[in-house]
Amino acid sequence: MTGRANSIIPNSIIIVGGGASGVVLAAHLLKSPNPDLRVTLIERRPHFGQGIAYSTLLSAHVLNVSAAGMSAYADDPGNFWRWLLERGLATPEQAPVYAPRSVYARYLKELPDELEACETGRLRLIREESLSISPSASGVEVALANGTSIVAHLAVLATGHDEEPGRT
Length: 168
Ligand SMILES: Cc1cc2nc3c(=O)[nH]c(=O)nc-3n(C[C@H](O)[C@H](O)[C@H](O)COP(=O)(O)OP(=O)(O)OC[C@H]3O[C@@H](n4cnc5c(N)ncnc54)[C@H](O)[C@@H]3O)c2cc1C
What we know:
By secondary structure, this protein is an alpha/beta fold. Helices cover 19% and strands 21% of the residues. α1 (20-29) packs parallel to α3 (101-114). The radius of gyration is 17 Å and the shape is globular. Flavin-adenine dinucleotide is lined by residues 16-22, 42-45, 51-53, 63-65, 129-130, 158-161.
């Protein structure tokens, strides 16, 4: 996490990278009781929650951990398993289930939606590449490839694995 240390409560947080870590962090932050907390999630891929691991469309590419161990929430370990059951994507008799990674990507993508944070303006999703982060008067400034920039109190780098240039 990067940002200028000051006495301001960090109400605005930018997360650079909308893979699994970025999406799960956003979901956790938005569960905060602080009604003023705002999160901006920046992802250069077309879809949030995929990253390298969960962008595969092949159903044979399954998670290496059973669904019971893949919840996004440590305080709700059955969250992903219930999500599968509710959608008819698994039955209780099938446990343990090693779900396709593409299905897990759907689960991750839906996490912010479930919090209704987009509608209330607490979550902003930006599909763009982040080029740089620099200190600003209020904290940090993130420059985007489209020539615009965003300021916030704090920024989190969740850019994950190195990728080949040009890979989407
Ligand atoms: C093939 C494979 C299979 C895996 N299978 C499993 C599994 O079954 N179970 C498990 O628990 N873990 C698995 N993992 C580990 C998995 O990678 C991590 O659990 C998790 O996906 C890492 O998430 P991340 O958000 O840290 O990184 P990533 O998923 O790499 O996400 C980083 C995101 O940041 C974005 N980004 C990077 N730079 C910028 C920028 N400058 N501007 C905007 N966006 C940017 C990228 O586009 C990407 O979407 C697997 C990993 C791989 C490679």
